[in-house]
Amino acid sequence: MAILRFDDPRTLVLKYDDAKAVDGKYGTQYMWSVEPDDVFYATPALNALIMSSNVKSGDRVTIAKATKEDINGNTITFFTVNGKSMDDIKNNQNVESMELPTALQDEPVPDFLEPNKPTDGIDARLDAIEDRLKKLEDESNPIPM
User: Fold this and answer.
1) How sure is the predictor about 33, in pLDDT bands with cuts at 50, 70 and 90?
2) CB 57 within 8 Å of CB 17
3) Whether the Cβ atoms of residue 15 and residue 35 lie closer than 8 Å to each other
């Protein structure tokens, strides 16, 4: 069994859906098992990135260490998983692409969250309210601007 480092990008196959938390010299680290029989230790930030990437047991993941300069010229070191940093995942995530947490996946989806579900005239009622509001605004401000 080898302990892997990420001096160069590595493509790995995860053995499990999540890591085992272990106490290390610098605090909590996360031990990930990968095929064939290797492990790597992830910082809390790298572990969060892997978990946010929605990778599962048997998935291929490419982990790379990257650097960039901040606005003060300081070098920042960070990781990418499958080419995406945590900032990329946060900025590109929208409601349609979000997955429910595992604990909620077996629960039925409430009607109001169903896409393309008829709204029982809600849109028409909202339009009528907006029209009435516009009319009230026009009546209370008789001088055109």
Assistant:
1) very high
2) yes
3) yes
